[in-house]
């Protein structure tokens, strides 16, 4: 959330100056980068939240609806949803509970694994995912506030950071068929 009136200076640049002045110059760039990403997250999340709030959705709820809508049959085991969304299983359970209460998803027994539960997208959930995606694309993603080339560069830098931090591995490159 941006302040009602922009600040007359960049507080992160001032913090970096103070870091250097206090003898932490070797950590100043890292502090400024981490602080900038966290503040950018706040600003981005507030835009997403404002777009989704009228639909009664949080981004976490939309992520699960969208993930299910991308599957072949609109269903995934809860554990797979947790892994793909990169969140703790308890968080997925909480999101599923709320979506199930609103009839956007339902739980079903897994057909071949008695230990697993499937979360299944309902028709209402599919419609809401489509509506919310249309709203987010129009109000946030199509006009993010920076040029496309900057977005691509930022995404590359953050992907490299995420990969190097153990968030994911590069996919295996398969040879071209003969």
TrEMBL record:
SMART domains linked: HTH_MARR
GO molecular function term, any single one: DNA binding
Gene3D superfamilies: Winged helix-like DNA-binding domain superfamily/Winged helix DNA-binding domain
A GO BP annotation: response to stress
A family per Pfam: MarR
Keyword annotations: DNA-binding
HTH marR-type domain sequence ranges: 30-163
Protein name per its UniProtKB record: DNA-binding transcriptional regulator, MarR family
């Amino acid at each position: 959330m941006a302040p009602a009136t922009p600040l007359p200076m960049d507080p992160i640049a001032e913090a970096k100056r103070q870091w250097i002045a206090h003898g932490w110059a070797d950590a100043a760039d890292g502090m400024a980068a981490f602080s900038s990403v966290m503040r950018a997250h706040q600003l981005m999340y507030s835009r997403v939240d404002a777009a989704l709030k009228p639909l009664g959705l949080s981004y976490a709820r939309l992520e699960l609806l969208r993930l299910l809508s991308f599957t072949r049959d609109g269903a995934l085991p809860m554990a797979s949803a947790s892994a793909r969304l990169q969140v703790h299983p308890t968080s997925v359970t909480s999101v599923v509970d709320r979506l199930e209460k609103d009839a956007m998803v339902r739980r079903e027994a897994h057909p071949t694994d008695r230990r697993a539960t499937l979360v299944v997208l309902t028709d209402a959930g599919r419609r809401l995912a489509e509506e919310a995606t249309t709203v987010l694309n129009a109000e946030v993603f199509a006009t993010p506030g920076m040029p496309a080339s900057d977005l691509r560069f930022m995404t590359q830098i953050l992907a490299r950071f995420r990969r190097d931090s153990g968030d994911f591995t590069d996919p295996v490159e398969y040879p071209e068929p003969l």
